[in-house]
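Lest this sound abstract, we let one protein speak, letters for residues, whole numbers for local backbone shapes, and leave readers to judge:
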Amino acid sequence: MGEAIASVAAQTHADLEHVIVEGKSPDGSLAAIERAAHDRMRVISERDDGIYDALNKGIRAATGDVVGFIHSDDFFAHQGVLARIASAFEDPTVEAVFSDLDYVAQADTSRVIRHWSTGPFHPKRLKYGWMPAHPTLYLRRSVYERLGGYDTSFGIAADYDFILRYFAQIDAEAVYIPEVLYKMRLGGVSNRNLAKIRQKMREDMSAIRRNNVGGIGTLVLKNTSKLGQFISRAKPRQSA
């Protein structure tokens, strides 16, 4: 929690609003938030109905033109991340910006376990399981006003459902930044155990069907495409 807040506070981009949504957790989260507080931050502390309800609260509370998320266990890759994203939004035709992401070890965040290189968007890629890493996706607030927020009937895959809902009908510019701007600690809810993995696959399939972007082949490709993210990119040996 503290590292996530500190990585926002350290951003060089001046025009920043940091809304923290805390669900009255008994684990001391609010105290940790207060210890890490900075002057560009405000806190909403109240009961919620899960992560997607909390994200919807954050969207409603935000007053800026662009909205993005950072989760309690994660952090920005460097101090210039938001400035890099903001520069892409200087073009008024741009509605979405996303980048690459590294999954890092819980205890040693310098150790990269998985590298998610998203690649640029093309409508045809949706049926092959393409999606940007959700935490790297920044959208104009008008997108949420137009499409609504996250569907809380999904327990795990509301982010994938929203991404499909948006990119299946996009008629604006989406900018891919081919850099790692976000670091996520490995160990999310969706891969916590076999039951969660099965739930995630069922919900992914529901999202694919309701947004008319494919079928079972899309689900298979979405999952198998992740395998390459675990392959280490070995550096070539230097010649003697």
